[in-house]
Amino acid sequence: MTVNSKKVVLVTGGSRGLGRDMALQLAKKDFDVIITYHGNKDAADKVVEEVYATGKKAIALQLDVAQSANFDAFIGVVKEKLANEFGTNQIHSLVNNAGTGTYASYISTTEAQFDDMVNIHLKAAFFLTQKMLPLLSDGGSIVNISTGLARFSYPNYAAYAIVKAGIESLTRYQALELGHRKIRVNTVAPGAIETDFGGGAVRDNKDLNAMIAGTTALGRVGLPDDVGSVVAFLCSPDAKWVNAQRIEVAGGVHV
Q: Which residues in the chain land under pLDDT 50?
């Protein structure tokens, strides 16, 4: 496929937090936006309205990224929506953002918790991207979302963090094997961000917030709009020579 002048991006997990801001920042970069949501349709519809307010188009599609058996049907819906809603047959960029955390010590982590992390984060990014490739423009972009916890370690995040480390390896392999189509693949690794992720602990626990801020060169924890603009940059032509990179967006934590 060749690059289409109509730029459409698919952001998984785009109904809240980081995904919401990614969608809005991508719209500002002249992308029409498809977001996925797991269960909160009202929140997803609100993001769609916010994107429309920027002058770009948007739709929200339900997807449980942990259920890879549903990916073929989802791709069929995406094809239909691209043709009927956006007047194109391809997307320019894919952002693998959907996810959730698990908070448990290494000793107490169950196999079910571990499998959830693999299915939601690693298996989903591997196989959803694979199945999206026929729809992805040559010269397009993929951004995989990791975490600062893949570089530094805090107790009780082992299952989540090591799966995200796998995402960073996946990025490099995707960049290598998709390079012949001029598709760029990069990782964005956020630090601690004030969202409802993990029960909102970073946002709501003042002691935790202060502790992380104290170990960060810029003296605070992150906000959602610290991350979305970086993702939008990587999807845009401005990042045309950035490939196979891990970009940590964490204010200089644990430098």
A: 1-4
Domains contained in the chain, number: 1
CA torsion sign for 141, 144, 145, 149 is negative
- What was the pLDDT predicted at 4? 46
Rounded CA separation 75/38 (Å) = 16
pLDDT given for residue 206 in this prediction = 79
Buried (b) or exposed (e) across 149-185, using 16+ Cβ within 10 A? bbbeeeeebbbbbbbbbbbbebbbebbeebeeeebbb
DSSP assignment of 95-118:
EE---------TTT--HHHHHHHI
pTM, two decimals, is: 0.95
Inside any domain, residue 171: yes
Domain that holds residue 216: 8-249
Instruction: Tell me how far apart the alpha carbons of residues 34 and 23 are, in angstroms, rounded to a whole number.
Output: 8
Tens-digit pLDDT profile for residues 177-211: 999 999 999 999 999 888 766 666 677 677 878 88
CA nearest 121: which of 172, 170, 185, 156?
A: 170
Contact, 123 vs 225, CB < 8 A?
Answer: no
Residue 218 in any domain: the answer is yes
Spatial distance between the Cα atoms of 42 and 122, rounded to a whole number of angstroms: 27
